[in-house]
Each structure stands twice: as C-alpha cells, then as structure tokens.
Automatic annotation (TrEMBL):
<dbReference type="InterPro" id="IPR018496">
    <property type="entry name" value="PsdUridine_synth_RsuA/RluB_CS"/>
</dbReference>
<dbReference type="Pfam" id="PF00849">
    <property type="entry name" value="PseudoU_synth_2"/>
</dbReference>
<dbReference type="GO" id="GO:0003723">
    <property type="term" value="F:RNA binding"/>
</dbReference>
<dbReference type="InterPro" id="IPR020094">
    <property type="entry name" value="TruA/RsuA/RluB/E/F_N"/>
</dbReference>
<dbReference type="InterPro" id="IPR050343">
    <property type="entry name" value="RsuA_PseudoU_synthase"/>
</dbReference>
<dbReference type="InterPro" id="IPR020103">
    <property type="entry name" value="PsdUridine_synth_cat_dom_sf"/>
</dbReference>
<keyword id="KW-0694">RNA-binding</keyword>
<dbReference type="InterPro" id="IPR036986">
    <property type="entry name" value="S4_RNA-bd_sf"/>
</dbReference>
<dbReference type="InterPro" id="IPR002942">
    <property type="entry name" value="S4_RNA-bd"/>
</dbReference>
<dbReference type="GO" id="GO:0120159">
    <property type="term" value="F:rRNA pseudouridine synthase activity"/>
</dbReference>
<dbReference type="InterPro" id="IPR042092">
    <property type="entry name" value="PsdUridine_s_RsuA/RluB/E/F_cat"/>
</dbReference>
<feature type="region of interest" description="Disordered">
    <location>
        <begin position="230"/>
        <end position="250"/>
    </location>
</feature>
<keyword id="KW-0413">Isomerase</keyword>
<dbReference type="GO" id="GO:0000455">
    <property type="term" value="P:enzyme-directed rRNA pseudouridine synthesis"/>
</dbReference>
<dbReference type="InterPro" id="IPR006145">
    <property type="entry name" value="PsdUridine_synth_RsuA/RluA"/>
</dbReference>
<feature type="compositionally biased region" description="Basic and acidic residues">
    <location>
        <begin position="235"/>
        <end position="250"/>
    </location>
</feature>
<feature type="domain" description="RNA-binding S4">
    <location>
        <begin position="5"/>
        <end position="63"/>
    </location>
</feature>
Length: 250
C-alpha cells in the first residue's frame, strides 16, 4: 500500500478543480473510486493502487513532472517575469499547474537542453557543485580554437574575476570562414560547473568570443534532436530513472 491521500487533494493537485469544486462534484455523484461512487471529498485513496474517476475519466496521479525543452533564444530561464517571456510561457497550463521551475539556467541568447521540473530533490542533485554533473555545449567561436586552448581548458583557466575553472574537455569539430574571411571554429565543450556565463568567459580567457551557444546534454539527459527551438516533450521513464540513479549518491 502506498501513501494515502484525500481524494480532493489528489484531484486538485492534478488540476481538475478547486477543493470547493471537488466537494460539490462528490456530492453530485461525479467521483468514483474503484467503480464505487464516493460522495465524501475527504475520502482517503491510495494514488498508486486505486482507480479514481471524475465523471467517466480516469485521473492518474503523479507528483512530479519532467519536461525536456529545446530552449530558444530570446526567452529567459525563469518561472515568471513582468517584462520578458519565460520558458514556462512555452508550456501548456496543464503542466504549469504543477508549478515547475527550470533546473539550472541558460542565458537569454543560448539555445538547447533545459530540464523543467517540480522535483526539488532531483534539481538539487543536478545543480549541487559537489556532484560535478557534466554539461556539454556546442558553440560557434570567433577565431581559430586550437589544441593549446584545449590544453588550457583541461588544466583550468582563470576567469575575469580570478576564479580558476575546474578541468574541462574541449573537442574541436572544425574551422571555417564566414563571408568576410573571418575564421569561425565549431567546438563542443564539457564542463562540470555552472558559473555565470561560464562557457563565454572561458573562451574570453583565451582570447576568443562565443557567437552561438547551445547546450546538448546535462548529466545523463541528452537533448532530443527532433526538438526544434521552442519545442518540448516530457521525459521518458527511462530518462527520468537514469537521471535519478546517476546523481543520487555522494
């Protein structure tokens, strides 16, 4: 037997209505548990075992949501803002009802993987500096990124505030020139920290400038290549389990 819960709390948590609404619906005979009408909105149910119906619809309980988003540029990683559009504005009301939040943040002009959830414990595991959760980014960098830059990142570079970064892994994918003959480098960089503007500041430390940045992965979670900027999907049970099992120690 799982943890017992009042039926009005369960239905309210799932966004079906207010407690007062649910009380009226119960008295009207619109709610059933395991096929039997329940007119007491305080009736205790086991969310994992009991079949709860509102009218003819089965209401499946879940405590947490886990959303993978390909964050677009121009949107901020926040729950609300009076001036800017936020990543939560891209989600439907049915998911916003769970009061999720971005797990970590991406800069306004950065694209890519963003996990949005209401699971505070998992968020702590992923964001805790002690966990050293790897995050991989793809970037276009103005200038020729070299093996020497890779060696500097592997050793740790000094940022503009004097902070020395933890070792990072640089993968140089190639070089090209733009229409004006300027060299651009395509790279992937894996870091295990989350300092403010860290990737941009690391390249600035070696005399380069990031002109495009996209996060590809965070821990075991990899951005679904089918998601276009601004699109999202809920994480699969396997993805959620890998996230939990990969970062619940230490």
């Amino acid at each position: 037997m799982g943890k017992m819960m009042r039926i009005d709390k369960l239905l309210a948590h799932m966004g079906r209505g207010s407690r007062s609404d649910i009380r009226k619906w119960a008295k009207a005979g619109r709610i059933s548990v395991n096929g039997k009408s329940v007119k007491d909105s305080g009736h205790q149910v086991d969310p994992e075992q009991d079949v709860v119906r509102l009218d003819d619809e089965i209401v499946l309980y879940r405590e947490y949501i886990y959303v993978m988003m390909n964050k677009p540029q121009g949107v901020i990683s926040a729950t609300e803002d009076t001036r800017e559009r936020t990543v939560l504005d891209l989600l439907p009301a049915a998911l916003r009802h769970f009061e999720p939040f971005p797990v970590g943040r991406l800069d306004k002009d950065t694209e890519g993987l963003l996990l949005i959830s209401n699971d505070g414990q998992l968020a702590h595991q992923l964001l805790s500096p002690k966990k050293h959760v790897p995050k991989t980014y793809f970037a276009h960098v103005a200038g020729e990124v070299t093996a020497e830059d890779g060696a500097s990142f592997a050793a740790g570079v000094t940022l503009d505030d004097g902070y020395v970064t933890a070792p990072a892994r640089l993968n140089i994918l190639g070089h090209r020139t733009d229409g004006e003959g300027n060299v651009l480098s395509d790279i992937e960089l894996t870091i295990t920290e989350g300092k403010f503007h860290q990737v941009k500041r690391m390249f600035a430390a070696v005399g380069k400038k990031v002109v495009y940045l996209k996060r590809l992965s965070m821990g075991t979670l990899e951005l679904d290549p089918q998601l276009k900027p601004g699109q999202w999907r809920e994480c699969s049970p396997e993805e959620i389990e890998r996230l939990r099992s990969g970062h619940n120690e230490g």
